[in-house]
Amino acid sequence: MSSIKEELQNLGAFYENQLLNDTVPFWFPKSLDEEYGGYLLMRDHDGTLLDDDKAVWIQGRAAWLLSTLYNTVEPRQEWLDGAKLGIDFLNNHCFDTDGQMFFHVNREGQPIRKRRYFFSETFAVIANAAYAKASGDEKAAETARYLFGKCIEYATVPGLLVPKFTTTRPSKGIGVPMILMNTAQQLRETIGDPRCDELISQFIQEIERDFVKDDIQCVMEQVSPGGNIIDHIDGRTLNPGHAIEGAWFILHEAKYRNNDPHLIALGCKMLDYMWERGWDKEFGGILYFRDVYDRPVQEYWQDMKFWWPQNEAIIATLLAYTLTGNEKYKEWHQMVRNYAYSHFHDKENGEWFGYLHRDGSIAQTAKGNMFKGPFHLPRQEWYCSQLIKEVVSSQSALDLLVTENYSTTV
To answer: Do 219 and 129 share a structural domain?
Structure first.
């Protein structure tokens, strides 16, 4: 028992040290835009600014991170002040006149691009909710709850989003129930909302019913509206890291619901299926795209290693291990952690490179762009350190890791 506890404590200390002394300092305070608000996050390996445009997703994600650090790690005033910069920029500059959010704005907040999905809104929800908890700002809380309602509308009312588009081969992606589930989890755990529990259950049911395919041991990225596999290139394309992220969202919900056995089994099954599909047995790391029938994949970056699937796999394997005591997940956690921190981590400048070739060599050096910023990596390090603190403080959780007799069969 003492060796397991000590091992976990050392692992938790590693993640916390990486978060607070390596990852966060790469971004802050230098990325705070004191002149125009928000954050300047498009940075090269050494922190040099590459572009002063602002990706709205990443503005929300960064504000969420700073607020969450304030709420859960230490109430540092600089984190709260930094979060306010992002919240004010989001709420004052990132909405179009029709109420929808932009995807891409310039430094001053003038619009550049708008997209047909509502992920900017989901990140604004979790940012406003976390900031409301940190600051007591009731307006931010109202904004979070209002935007969450709009996200549900966007997901359920056809044609509500612009630009409108049509297709003769309709499909639905796992990304919508996944992100709405996690948005609801964040909202519930910061400021609360009576809609969350029922909606989370609905999103999990949809994922289990339509996207998890037990007959071929796979989690689909997209399916027909009825949940069938679309046997064309796009329909066959899998994103193992994304499905593994969905697995840990479900495992997190299992933990929240007093270790719900069905959700543990479902999350572990999804992890098992997509680890087998995505783990590169030759070079290590999670591959980006795979074909459900092992046919050629269209995207040329299909065999690259992106940073964020490794982050999701690190969280998922640690959650699976601490919820089940299954040594397999402990071994997988060690494998992906060792791979990621030996290949992605920049020991000289801090943070991670974002993009590797399949053999682990660096494809390009940028650490911040329209999609990468202070979110997946710090979220992983924060989540793992917090999870380990919970486990080592719980005798029943430690006992489980000793017995190692939990079944993950539905």
So the answer is: no
Give the C-alpha distances (Å, rounded to integers) separating 382 from 109, 186, 248, 311, 315. 29, 14, 14, 11, 10
The DSSP 8-state label assigned to residue 101 in this structure reads B
29 upstream amide cis, omega within 30 of 0: yes
Distance in angstroms (rounded) separating the CA atoms of residues 126 and 290? 31
Residue type, 339: Y
CA 310 to each of CA 10, 111, 197, 337, 378: distance values in angstroms, whole numbers, following the listed order:
20, 32, 28, 8, 12
When divided into structural domains, the chain yields a total of 2
User: Which residue, among 4, 57, 49, has the nearest Cα to 27 in the 3D structure?
Assistant: 49
Which of 166, 187, 210 lies at the terminal end of a domain, its last residue?
A: 166
Residue 168 has pLDDT above 70, yes or no: yes
Whose tokens are 């109420």? That residue is: 99
Using the 8-state DSSP alphabet, how is residue 258 labeled? T
Question: Six-digit token pair at 3?
Answer: 């060796």
pLDDT in tens, 91-131: 999 999 999 999 999 999 999 999 888 999 999 999 999 99
CATH number for the domain spanning 143: value is 1.50.10.20
What mean pLDDT value characterizes the chain? 95
With beta carbons less than 8 A apart as the criterion, state whether 210 and 185 touch. no
- pTM metric for this prediction: 0.96
Q: Which of 133, 166, 199 is the last residue of a domain?
A: 166
> Encoding tokens for residue 139?
């307006």
- Tell me the average pLDDT across 210-239: 97
Domain identity same for 114 and 195: no
Assign 3-class secondary structure to 182-231. Answer: HHHHHHHHHCCCCCHHHHHHHHHHHHHHHHEECCCCEECCEECCCCCCCC
Tokens (6 digits) for 285: 């790391």
Q: Give me the domain span that covers residue 73.
A: 31-166
